[in-house]
Amino acid sequence: MRTQVAIIGAGPSGLLLAQLLYKAGIDAVVVERQSPDYVLGRIRAGVLEQITMDLLDQAGVGQRMHAEGLPHHGIELLFKGARHRIDLQGLSGGKQVMVYGQTEVTRDLMQARAAEGLTTIYEARDVTLHDFDSTNPKVRYTKDGQTHEISCDFIAGCDGYHGVSRASVPQDKLHTYEKVYPFGWLGVLADVPPVSHELIYANTPRGFALCSMRSATRSRYYVQVPMEEKVENWSDDAFWNELRSRLDPEAAANLVTGPSLEKSIAPLRSFVAEPMRFGRLFLAGDAAHIVPPTGAKGLNLAASDVGYLSSALAEFYREKSDVGIDSYSERCLRRVWKAERFSWWFTSLMHRFPDTGEFGQKIQEAELDYLVNSTAASTSLAENYVGLPLV
Ligand code: RFL
Ligand code: PHB
């Protein structure tokens, strides 16, 4: 098989890239290890920046997001038992975010691809990358016991943190930066109305909690747990009791509980691999960088990477120019590191760290008090949360 761009991974970055390339008249094939149901079963991000919404519109898949997504104009920070609103819209010159699940974004992209009759190869095993230092790279995989080869002009490695793309780069060409946090998030999805109409980020002596949502009838909640915690140790009741204990009295009284639809623990990590381009291989999204979810930046960074990549490739085919592909890595990384900084800072401010004790808690509370009472500080939070501009 021959295509212009072989895309590894059918998560949001791979599927959005494929759709943006399709709109630019560029041919792509997507190769994914899992089945479509498995991909749709992963419950992850919930908050989209304006830039991500714009890219989904550009890709022609924004209709359902505009109809069913929930525009949010503020968030609440809970500390010392009281909630304080951050007016995202007022502090960011009118910007907002959209609460619309990653699962739904993925579903919309899958449907658009299927409707156009475009090729996605699901359940492709043993994917390998070849000759990306030449002008004729290849991707091989096995399916139903047979080996297949895709010959292409470029490979896009959109296969997440555990994918094969980054692992195929000679280790001496790659510089990685990593920070692992000593805790994880236990998340529950449930068909219960959200406890509040805006997201609540809570700093409490028992640890961090987040109240988020997917719709007016579906909630997504998280509590900080120790790194070694096992999801089997958490009954639904235990989860609801722990979450309630981390809320203010009003929210605790309003919390509606119900059976969990999904329950899982996600570790928290900051990670960046540099550069993001190796000859004719580009890394995008979680394949190149991970942020802890506190800043809601992972999916949004994946979207801005593939926004840059699709314009660079369009420039290459349309204008025979290498300028976009040559500056891809540097452009992405400038934005990535700012999102890394913001996600690290917000994580550090909101979580209990095992080794900082009561002093650490007091310092966090003082910073939060400053944050919600200083226009300068809350403006900085707001402009990062709604998303920094593309450069
Ligand atoms: P994905 O989603 O991991 O998709 C990669 C795809 O590649 C496939 N794959 C392979 N395919 C072929 N061959 C191989 N060898 C392969 N290896 C892997 C995988 O099966 C998969 O389908 O990466 P992508 O597309 O870069 O997207 C990144 C986002 O998924 C991620 O950044 C976000 O989910 C992060 N995140 C959040 N981001 C936000 O912007 N806002 C949020 O509110 C937010 N909340 C979250 C989050 C992530 C979380 N977890 C579980 C880590 C909340 C949580 C709890
Ligand atoms: C979510 O709804 O899953 C979510 C929202 C905000 C975050 C992280 C996750 O910061």
Task: Write up what this structure looks like.
With 391 residues, the protein is α+β, with helices and mostly antiparallel strands. The chain has a domain of 195 residues: FAD/NAD(P)-binding domain, CATH 3.50.50.60. The chain has twelve helices and 20 strands. The strands form four sheets. Strands 6-5-14-15-16-13-17-20 form an eight-stranded mixed beta sheet, with helices on both faces. Helix 1 links the parallel strand 1 and strand 2. Helix 1 runs parallel beside helix 9 and helix 11 crosses helix 12. The longest helix has 28 residues. It is globular and about 60 Å long. The model has no long low-confidence stretch (mean pLDDT 97). P-hydroxybenzoic acid (PHB) binds next to strand 15.
Q: What Rg is obtained from the alpha carbons, in whole angstroms?
A: 21 Å
Ligand catalogue: 8-demethyl-8-dimethylamino-flavin-adenine-dinucleotide, P-hydroxybenzoic acid
By secondary-structure content and strand pairing, the structural class works out as alpha+beta
Q: Beta-strand level of the residues, as a percent range?
A: 25-35%
Give the helix tally: 12
CATH architecture assignment name of the domain at 5-45 and 102-177 and 269-346:
3-Layer(bba) Sandwich
Which sequence of strands runs across the widest sheet? 6-5-14-15-16-13-17-20
CATH class of the domain at 5-45 and 102-177 and 269-346: Alpha Beta
